[in-house]
């Protein structure tokens, strides 16, 4: 299907660009199964996460999607239709359960014959799979390229064609579905991702629950800001908050940085067993409001003071959010004059600390300490 002759020069037939689906005007928020459960995820776990999103207040804070990553797939039936495996059973019933709680269901597939975990992929069945997802009530598709590396040389042209192929299939499936691409940011996907019909695309390899992994992926996005905005978001991967590999300051940094970029906020922990610190981070509505600002303008780097990165993000209401991010291994003292943000901020502005939840006159400058691997996140209003 769409393959030129030649064992070493096989290429996917080109596909026309896919129009925008108009979805994801704000960065998607929700939960994904992979970081905590990987291949252990079951339908019972998904129902538990949906219930927890309601009980903890996450749904009311804006977390919408309950996304099942790899390993849900079963065999195809005699007509070629994809079916869930025994861990999941009736996928339409699971979608109905999620929808009944005011949430949306996401699934995972690959343009390969097999997925990354060697389950059934969508190659050659794109249109049928998209229609099947729509019939089940699926609202979000994460499409991971790695399975296709077994079929074709890894080139931009092959990736773009296969992602466009599923983009057309989703567009014709009869149900709006947010389309998320995963291929580790190869070939500058942020430049051509919109033409696949996708709403977000991974710009990095998989994240892990460490400071080095998280900070490298997060700060890398500042170089890519020009390609991110309403309906088409750079995705530095999911949140690790609550999985235990970082401390509270580091998790606050991830939540703050992802919101400043702005990036999708997809929690990756077990929502049923969150401690108070994890809840306070994931449910900080003042920080969520930064991520979900309707203008969708990305943060910019103002300066670097030693190990401290100073970022600013212009908000729709005319305020500016400033983040002081300490990437060093010791506490750091910072000074920053507000006039650098423009007229109207020095002397007369109000400053709101989004983690301390306290407001005060801004004065002429910020002077303060930022903890190791921590953040001070301030919103200034004229």
Concise description?
Helix content is 26%, strand content 23%. With 382 residues, the protein is an alpha/beta fold. Helix 5 crosses helix 6.
* Strand line-up of the largest beta sheet: 9-8-7-6-5-2-1-10
CATH topology assignment of the largest domain: TIM Barrel
The tally of domains stands at: 2
Task: Detail the poorly predicted runs.
Answer: 1-8
Report the order of strands and helices: EHHHEEEHEHEHEHEHEHEHHEEEEEEEE
Strand content: 15-25%
Secondary structure class reads alpha/beta
CATH class of the largest domain: Alpha Beta
> What is the CA–CA distance across the termini?
59 Å
- The 3D shape can be described as globular
What's the CATH H-level superfamily name of the largest domain?
Answer: Aldolase class I
- Report the CATH architecture of the largest domain: Alpha-Beta Barrel
- State the helix count: 11
User: Whole-number average pLDDT?
Assistant: 95
Main sheet attributes: strand count, strand direction, barrel closure: 8 strands, parallel
The proportion of residues forming helix, as a percent range, comes to 25-40%
* Number of DSSP-assigned strands: 18
Protein name: Alpha-galactosidase
Keywords: Disulfide bond, Glycosidase, Hydrolase, Signal
Catalytic activity: Hydrolysis of terminal, non-reducing alpha-D-galactose residues in alpha-D-galactosides, including galactose oligosaccharides, galactomannans and galactolipids
InterPro entries: Aldolase_TIM (IPR013785), GH (IPR017853), Glyco_hydro_27 (IPR002241), Glyco_hydro_27/36_CS (IPR000111), Glyco_hydro_b (IPR013780), Melibiase_C (IPR041233)
